[in-house]
Amino acid sequence: MISFRCLMCSKTVNATVDQQGATIDCPECEATLNVPKQSVEAPAPVVNRADSQVAGRETKEVLADGTEAKSIFRAKRKAQQEAKAEGVEFDSSKFDQDKATRNSMLGILAVAIIAIGWYAYYLSRPVQRYEFTEELANELLQGMNTSDDSSLTTLLDRYMDAQCTCTETMGVVLEYVDSSEKLEEVMDDLKRLSQIALIQNPLVNAVDRNAPNMQVMSVMEEFKGRQAGAHIKLENEVKRIQQVDPAMATQLKDNVPAIALLDMFQN
Q1: Could you give the CA distance from residue 163 to residue 252 in angstroms, rounded to a whole number?
Q2: What is the CA radius of gyration of the chain?
Q3: Are 36 and 14 in contact (CB under 8 A)?
Q4: What is the pLDDT of residues 198-240, one digit of tens each?
Q5: Is residue 63 a contact partner of residue 98, using CB atoms and an 8 Å limit?
Q6: Which domain covers residue 108, as residue numbers?
Q7: Domain shared by 262 and 190, yes or no
Q8: Of 125, 150, 167, which residue is a domain's last?
Q9: Residues 94-106, buried b or exposed e (16+ Cβ, 10 A)?
């Protein structure tokens, strides 16, 4: 008779001499064990831990049906062996579903990591200087000086579109500024945009914007939100620059009339 202990549950296991070198199941935890050549005090090596009903040191995982196993692979192998022993067809759906769920979670995590990394890069990248071209300047001048009075809608639309674009462009130009040197680089662009934005068009000035005219009201409503957004953007950029260096904000106020009209300088 050969006696030895199970590594998984420490139960003493007995085997016959004829079973030397063979594998048997532990009567306590059902782990598959190698039978040593003689009785020993040390536990016998485990051939298949998945067969054991005793949890090892590995972290357990909860499967779709609520059962615990040291890994999905081992749990699946154990279920296969049990199905084979019972003579029934093995159903792997619960394991495949659990694996698919884990893969989905890993995919979502990977996408989140990539998105966070890209956003961090976006925030840290240096802002490139906006190129205010002569072509855009001429286009804005044509809009501000429009004489197309074929309809009030056309007249106001062209004028207000150009005016909003001027304000929006000033905000974009200021995104580049984080030093007095960069402010000097874009100061001429800001001055010219301000000059264009403040052009007074006699035809537009002659329009009574408070009259109950549906055409006028429609155009005014269309540009109301855009005007507000453009001014908020411009003012936020000036406030950011003011935090960097108050002298730069003062320089903008003194040299760019359209910026001097912002609410932050009127209060």
Answers
A1: 19
A2: 39
A3: no
A4: 999 999 888 776 767 777 777 788 888 899 999 999 999 999 9
A5: yes
A6: 62-125
A7: yes
A8: 125
A9: bbeebeeeeeeee
CA distance 3 to 253: 95
Same domain for 113 and 203, yes or no, is no
Question: For residue range 134-165, what is the model confidence (pLDDT) as tens digits?
Answer: 999 999 999 999 998 788 888 888 999 999 99
Residue closest to 197 by CA, chosen among 231, 242, 240, 244:
231
Q: E strand or H helix at 139, and its extent?
A: helix 134-144
Tokens of 195: 């000059």
Rounded to an integer, what distance in angstroms lies between the CA atom of residue 77 and that of residue 80? 5
Is 94 found in the same domain as 28? Answer: no
Please give the Cα distance from 46 to 34 (Å, whole number): 7
Single out the residue in 11, 27, 54 at which a domain terminates.
Answer: 54
HSE at residue 158, side-chain half, CA atoms within 13 A, is 19
138, 104: one domain = no
The label of the residue with tokens 């090596």 reads 45
DSSP labels for 22-51? -EEE-TTT--EEEPPSS--SSEEPEEEGGG
